[in-house]
Amino acid sequence: MPTEVADGARTLRTDPDRPPVAVVEPPGMSGKERAVFAVIALVAATGFAILALSRGEHVNSMWIVLAAVGTYLIAYRFYARLIDAKIHRPDDTRMTPAEEFDNGKDFMPTDRRVLYGHHFAAISGAGPLVGPVLASQMGYLPGTLWIVFGVVLAGAVQDFMVLHLSIRRRGRTLGQMARDELGSVGGWAAILGVLTIMVILIAVLGIVMIGALAESAWAVWAVAMTIPIALFMGVYLRYLRPGRVSEVSAIGVVLLLAAIVSGRWVSQSDWAHVFILDKPTLAICLAVYGFVAAVLPVWMLLAPRDYLSTFMKVGTIVMLALAILVVRPELQMPAVTHFAHDGTGPAFAGNLFPFLFITIACGAISGFHALIASGTTPKLIEKESQARMIGYGGMLTESFVAIMALVAACIIDQHVYFAMNAPPGLTGGTPETAAAYTNGLHLVSGAGTPLPDIDPAVYAQAAKDVGENSIVSRTGGAPTLAFGMSEVMHRTPLLNLVGDKAFWYHFAILFEALFILTTIDAGTRVARFMLSDAIGNVRGLHAFKDPSWRPGAWIATTIMVLAWGSILYMGVTDPLGGINMLYPLFGIANQLLAVIALCVVFAVTVKRIGLRWAWIPGLPLAFVLLVTMAASWQKVFSTNPKIGYWTIHAKAKEALASGAQTFQTAKSPAEIEAVVRNTAVQGTLSIVYAVLVLVVFAAAMIVVARWLRGVGAPPVEHDAPASHIFAPSGFVATPLEKQVLAEWREAGLDPAPVAGRQ
């Protein structure tokens, strides 16, 4: 029942006796808005022009920030709206799964600001922090272009469209949607691919986090304290002060800052040893936490903890961006280095194509996001129109994190960057041997002139400045990002009063650990949903289809935690270094998962509206498939022992058979046996992933071809009941939305009640 308000704006009711449940804003832009976006476009274009064309000694890093932010704003305003208008056509008069199946546990209408925090925290793990740092070895330009344009045309499109599809399908997971839309063969291949890839993704995220927390009482204390803080926030928001989001946010931020500050005191106290844990112990603790977070009601721990972490994540990134604009550090890395051409980079081996794309991974497109967008988020979202802000907008925010990570790496002295990111086998592990190594890399400035040799004392002083014993071979990306952040923060007025370079370095390490942990807990819950969906397809086990059935939840969670926990334990005890061996597999698996998601989205888009706008998901599908297949081929068949898993496997077996006591960084026959075993697992997974994804792609193309011939099945979409709640679509309510909210208040009604809190 539409009601005309003014200038084409309308309010929509589903019950004549209740206030409106939806608004339709007038299309078009005012003259002021056009002028603002024209200026934004000009600034972004200027930034890209300077980055692409400048080949001098001095290129300011602020141009990367301005180019990226300008592009994000334009894409969100125009491209995301195009997708909504031409493909999604959101209808806020329909119930979302959160409203229809509200049980106060897994399904629950959640304030859009809290849900944005949960979604962003869940999708933004190690990838946007580590990948861009490692990819910086190829120069600042390739990474910047892929992160910015990749997210606009691929990553944000995938997240946005998968979220909308799941909302229209009772919050179904990606694997189940694939089975519904692509048929039995393609569906089961997708389910198996999603489940097995999920295991490796969570495990690698855990390896990166453990690398940041191991042997650090400060970091372990602060991260551990976020759990009771989140529990308090969950109880406060649900029972003590329902709906007081701003109030509980302020309390949570104060408590979080207290946890961070007190971490330094704990690390200097007599009981610091309690929080100094080795890597295997941390792996076990992480698995236990993942299990608990996945089975507790979502309002109790997961949503408030992720929302809390978002304040630190977004706040730190915004603070870093502003600091860059104030300090304006110059880029030390050239636009493109010779490692992009010869593939001999110390951070990772391989040429720009395809390895730049799979290394950056989450900063541009991440298949893992499709699991969150079809896992927890669609079960919590209040209105279909909020998907643009949460799905597309959330991914743009993660891309900005990746841009900040790339800038932090590229403003570091090149010698320091390569000394930190090269493994001990190359650097020797000491300042003297590291200086000899980096001096032999033939590093050049942005103008192409050779850099002078570095004195080993520079490495020793750099470590002292950040309160570490050494910075040599601190691989994995996280320490490099922390070093670059501390370099900017301690040079910024006001921030330098908060703490010295050592403080900001450890603050950044904690920031990274929080980033990753929030992805692990949400990922484990999503893995539980996916496994339950898969088991529910088996005859006699249909009870698993209900994600809130407690026995099923406990069984599915136990299986998934044991699966990723075993890979995690293997990684933290890997003689060749878990992150060095598993991160390329993580990147490939993550992008292959994106191919599965885009196959489903592409097939559904063609079924719903035909081919005219199907290029929107089709373009990223084609590119990401090409990249991942090329990378998979090289990881399986390359004869380069730095790239091919089976080549490393064969050489390790030869070493073992010959009686060798060492092999690369393996220092004993037992460790060589571990290398043989681990590379066999990694090589096998590479083959399995590629085959499953090709089956899914073939199934999707067959479904599309059948539909275009007029013989295919229609899309499987749920007919939702009429909605009885209201919520704004963006962070800030529009004047019309505020008017509707006022109507609800005047009627004495809660516009978005939650089961058990009414």
Automatic annotation (TrEMBL):
Residues 60-631 form the CstA N-terminal domain. It is found in: Cell membrane. GO terms for cellular component: plasma membrane. The keyword Transferase does not apply. It comes from the Bacteria. InterPro entries: CstA, CstA_N. It is a multi-pass membrane protein. Keywords: Cell membrane, Membrane, Transmembrane, Transmembrane helix, Transport. Residues 1-20 are annotated as: Disordered. Pfam families: CstA. One of its GO terms (biological process) is cellular response to starvation. The keyword Transport applies. The chain crosses the membrane at residues 35-54, 60-79, 114-134, 146-167, 188-212, 218-236, 248-266, 281-303, 310-327, 347-372, 393-417, 502-520, 552-570, 582-606, 613-633, 687-708. Belongs to the peptide transporter carbon starvation (CstA) (TC 2.A.114) family. PANTHER family: INNER MEMBRANE PEPTIDE TRANSPORTER, PYRUVATE_PROTON SYMPORTER BTST. This is Carbon starvation protein.
